[in-house]
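Two entries, shown back to back:
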Amino acid sequence: MPGLLAAAVLVLAAGCSSGRSPSGHHSTTPGATASSPAPARPAETAPPAKGTVRVVRTVAEGLDSPWGLAPLPEGGLLVSSRDRGTIVRVDEKTGRKTELGAVSGVAAQGEGGLLGIALSPRYASDHLIYAYFTSASDNRLVRMLYDPKRPAGDQLGAPDTIFKGIPKGVIHNGGRIAFGPDGMLYAGTGESGERGLAQDRKSLGGKILRLTPDGAPAPGNPFPDSPVYSYGHRNVQGLAWDGKQRLFAGEFGQDTWDELNAITPGGNYGWPDAEGKSGDGRFRDPIAQWHTDRASPSGIAYAAGSIWLAGLRGERLWRVPLKGTAASAAPQAFLTGTYGRLRTVVAAGGDRLWLVTSDTDGRGTPKKGDDRILELRVT
């Protein structure tokens, strides 16, 4: 596969230093003092350069424009429908689907609609679901009470808007959200087709945002009183943390390079002045890059020492083995063309992944049973 490996050019990241925490502050080991240095961390070992992945089973079929996926601690998978604006619960054992309800205010158009979803860090006590969606005027973040005791179709409370004003467009709406290990809410946004917004730190477009669960700029953000955590992004739809709480993001390129980036607080990732590896000291270079017809990355996940990246146009699942914040070997592709466009990949614990296809999003070629959730096993 020399052509494939040549396309999957790797670059070293000017990534997170090992002494920084997700908040951007230098971290210390509890109990360490100036006269008592923190104990050395054990050396990181890179996973094997090659691995395998296989589809264990099809969990569910017949999903309409699925986008976000959130596993419930009590069992079940919540899935958002971009175009219908609904959330369904899938029984991961039987595949049975139960509609929770529609999210009011969603205006689906182009790449916009009901996008990412995430569970509250205090879900066990508050039963709140967070969502990122496109409204008639902007992209926004809301939270809703989920009450499974109510009748199907009426299990979602009214959305409470916690953050709004993210630029919307027919394209580049971002939309992935996730709570980090620090309990803060992270959101990947797009520049809505207006390139200049990505470099404007006062704009919310083309950014990774870091917020409190109530929607305020999170303490320790790199820019005072700002929700902006990193900037210079074209369209971020993938967020994942490794085992040492380091953040990675997948990003759509324009014509040449899609990217996997190691995210540092306050980092500038170059768009629109750079696409892929630039070598320009002003910008953070990606740790891996692909030609856009081989990836077009949406969701990413961390499992078994690697980042897993779901490709839409590329119609394949990429594995990027990590050592620290760098790729330790060339990316490896799986399932190429087998299931069509791939939208979301989520760690399912241990050596398992949930993978969501995206052939009913208007750009794919739906087959019988699309769209689906697959359970994968990786080694």
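entry 2 starts here
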Amino acid sequence: MTTSFTGPERHDHSEHQPEPGEVARGGHGSDLINLGDGHHEGGGQLLERFENPGLPEHVHRLGDDDPAAARRSERQVASLFAVSMVATLLFVISYIVVGKGAIVTLPLIGPTKALHVSLGVTLGISLLCIGLGAVHWAKTLMSDTEVVEERHTLRSPDEDREGTVQILTDAAESTQITRRPLIKYSLGGALGLFVVPLGLQLVGSLGPLPHDNLGVTLWDRKLNGKGRRLMRDPENTPIRLSDVTLGSVFHVLPEGIDDVQNPQDAKVKAAVLLVSMQESDIKNAKEASWGIQGVVAYSKICTHVGCPVGLYEHTTHHLLCPCHQSTFDMTNDCEVIFGPAKRRLPQLKISVNDAGYLVADQGFQEPVGPSFWERA
């Protein structure tokens, strides 16, 4: 008996076909010796046909035959899910209780923030126990009988498709989740609680609403009952109107900013850019009235994401944000003419005091910086 092979079709123009025992020359230069008895020799090796051994015999697990062992596995799985729930609750407690400034010293790592350690450990334990519980559940209770599905072409007959649905239904039943309510409820609790840290991180870590934190700056607070003078940054020296020549640009902070409780926070909100232009170039009447002799002052905080806007182009009077190229027209109340920013830069109303120094008559009339929930 000879063995037949299926493969790509060959076009052999030779009239002689090899007989049993003869050597057939392959198209790729390989030799195949047909021994005529179910054996083939090729490449110096003797190959013998063998029957398909099929699937190995199913080995029953302890839980398959012993209900007590199955219940014990069920309790173990539920215990792992319960530990996950406890770890998730500890994550929430740590997020609320552990201070952001607390430091702990860990071996091989050294000093690190206690909040990061507590959140990492509790979240890791929560996820690990869910994974271990699922693996133990699959290994001890779910059906592990191997099933072979013969490959078919194109669409299966309707009865086969219905049979597949039935197989999936039976497979779901074989997980025993409907018969093991303890696992079902503990898994639901573990997965349900595991969503809490994700939502807490997503929503809670956004921080509190700004309320009036961006609407009130140091410019709003009078100094000795008077408006604060405009001070050069970083020299911290006052600016006279006579110092501001045509085309000049000053980076400005309010007078007395170094004396407040959190000067860095105050500087972030109160930073101002002072520019001198021809009065005839200013198109907006409000802008002209809030300035003096073509000298105008605007917030440096971009209304897109809060980058410092400090690139002034004298010829076009355009103000450019270096982060995302938002461009503002300083001749028309700093309206946005390009880029992702959606709002104008807030203007600071200025005047000159009796000593000839530039002062702020009032604070910004709208919050500085990017959008937030209370300010679309």
